[in-house]
Amino acid sequence: MLEVSLEPLALETTTFQAGDTVRVTVSFRYRVGVDTRLNLLAAPYYANLFGKNIVEQCRGQTELFLEASPEESEQTAAVDMTLVPQSLGGIDNGAYGLVVWLRADGSTAGPWTLPGPIARAEQDNVLVVSGNSSGGMTDTFSSMMPMLLVMMLLGMVGPLLSEGSE
Amino acid sequence: METKLKTLELSLGGLRPLQDGSREYAPGWYVDPETGCPVFYDGETGLFHTLGGGIYIPLAYMNPAPKQVTLGPGERLKVSISYKYSGPAVSSATERFCVGVYGSFGFTEKIVGSNSRSLSQSTTPLTYTSEYTFTIPTGVGTDWDDIYCKISGGSPSVNESIFGYENALLIVGKDPTISDFRITDFVKV
């Protein structure tokens, strides 16, 4: 027996430069009894031991108006998000997921918070961010931090050891 | 939004006056031919009862709806009923129309309407029709999907007849229902 199920096509991984503005388009079907305002949000996200986390500085948001429709209606909408460079406190180079979510007007629901959003769509590792400069004083200092810490520890422990051996 | 009128029809079957001695059933125990379970007919209420959870409860008067009507706040729903009556003339019988929630603890009425009705004397069953139009309120719950109608009371009092449909309505409330939410594209602008 042949079973066929239709799934949305996976999004293609795309590379963006830090500082780019990305327009995310969504589609959905809805029913609602009264005219309704919602918020559509989009953000890059990354995953770690504590779960999925959006890059707040890059979150985009737009207001969405849904006309009352007791019968199911199709709707498309778009929201822009800016990949704020890391030097401005934004996103680092690397691969990120993309999440969009719908929430009620006035709600502060995140994509994975409880109570959850009205709707959410996401895909892992679909945004590749590059173009953040790897040089600069801050980056140099950051990369040297572990070595500096070891040297400081040795500097503190060394005299104690030498006192103990006398 | 344009206000639409949607319709739902129910049939209450046949009615008799309470004083009518020619009952179809005498009070007592019967066996349900469908299930083989014993059922008790209460001559006072005119209802069959069955044993459930240690108590005798009336047999279900709610039925699967033949169709489902989609409704939203501000829309109007016209419920039509029909029934047959034979017996003495009855004045001021009450036709009651209810939209609500039917569950384990019975029917919780949310919107109610009623008509007063006089029935003519007749030795043969006469068909009566009636209707009531509800306007769905803004605060409608999405679980207000059941409906029942009954006719009762009057002078002389008619034998109460009740009939309902489960899941007759698909309520579209003030909270949106979203499906097939997906990212279709993302591009640099």
How would you sum up this structure, described in words?
By secondary structure, chain A is α+β, with helices and mostly antiparallel strands. Chain A folds into 2 domains: 14-133, Immunoglobulins (Immunoglobulin-like), CATH 2.60.40; 136-166. Helices cover 17% and strands 46% of the residues of chain A. Chain A contains 1 helix and 8 strands, in the order ββββββββα. Chain A has one helix spanning 137-165, and strands spanning 14-17, 21-32, 36-48, 51-54, 60-66, 69-82, 94-104, 119-130. Chain A is elongated, with a radius of gyration of 23 Å. Chain B has 189 residues and is mostly beta strands. Chain B has a domain at 5-21 and 60-171: Immunoglobulin-like. Chain B has no helices and 15 strands. Chain B has strands spanning 5-15, 28-31, 38-42, 47-52, 55-58, 62-64, 69-71, 76-87, 90-103, 106-119, 122-135, 146-153, 158-166, 169-171, 177-188. In chain B, the strands form 4 sheets. A 5-stranded mixed beta sheet of chain B has the order 6-13-12-9-10, with no helix packed on it. A 4-stranded antiparallel beta sheet of chain B has the order 2-3-4-5, with no helix packed on it. In chain B, strands 1-8-11 form a 3-stranded mixed beta sheet, with no helix packed on it. The two termini of chain B are 35 Å apart. Chain A binds chain B through residues 8, 11, 14, 16, 20-36, 38, 66-72, 76, 80, 98, 100, 102, 118-121, 123, 126-127, and chain B through 1, 70-75, 136, 138, 140, 171-189. Strand 2 of chain A pairs antiparallel with strand 15 (177-188) of chain B, so a sheet runs across the interface.
Key terms:
heterodimer; A: alpha+beta; Immunoglobulin-like; 2 domains; six-stranded mixed β-sheet; two-stranded antiparallel ribbon; 8 strands; B: 189 residues; mainly beta; five-stranded mixed β-sheet; four-stranded antiparallel β-sheet; elongated
